[in-house]
Write a structure and sequence with these properties.
This protein is α/β, with parallel strands linked by helices and about 210 residues long. It is about 40% helix and about 15% strand.
Amino acid sequence: MTLPLLEPSLSGPRIVPVLVLDDPAEAVPLAQALVAGGLTTLEVTLRTPKALACAEAIAAKVPEALVGFGTLIRPEQFAQARDAGARFLVSPGLTDKLAAAAKATGLPYLPGIATVSEALMAWEHGFRELKFFPAMLNGGAPALKGMAPLIPEVRFCPTGGIKAENVREILSLPNVFALGGTWLTPADAVKERRWSEIERLAREASALCPQA
């Protein structure tokens, strides 16, 4: 089975803001601020009661954004995400049931891995683009560099603990096609709806990396 990949769909800087939202009224202007700052690939995590509604609102009302739904941990969430407008899917780990549910959607999927053994399991399921998570806790750039000669066909989107100062080093690795982070959307800035500040952070992040 040939599985769709996320990387060919990326446009612009290879940084994916990871969003934790619980208010649909904040979701659209936040996404618009990130897009205005040059970051058009967004991951909305399904970690809060209203996260699905937030993700659906962004997918419907911010057409410039490539919206993925993350923190998918139950098989039924994959079809829900697809039906709500997801363009790609992300989970923090991988099981046989999650792999089957992801394949059934026909969408690009980034299963989370933290070790070479987990990466090989994902490989056996047919996945060639993986989420390295939590990235900094599991060794960051040195760990990814160490994996490169062992599984050269696999490419990663690391997330978890990444800050602006880590971006250039991580994106310089040949087995990294993108990275994700929450530093672009500080909780206080979102709560106080300081969209201009978030647009500025997005522009600063955009300047840190080459175009995909």
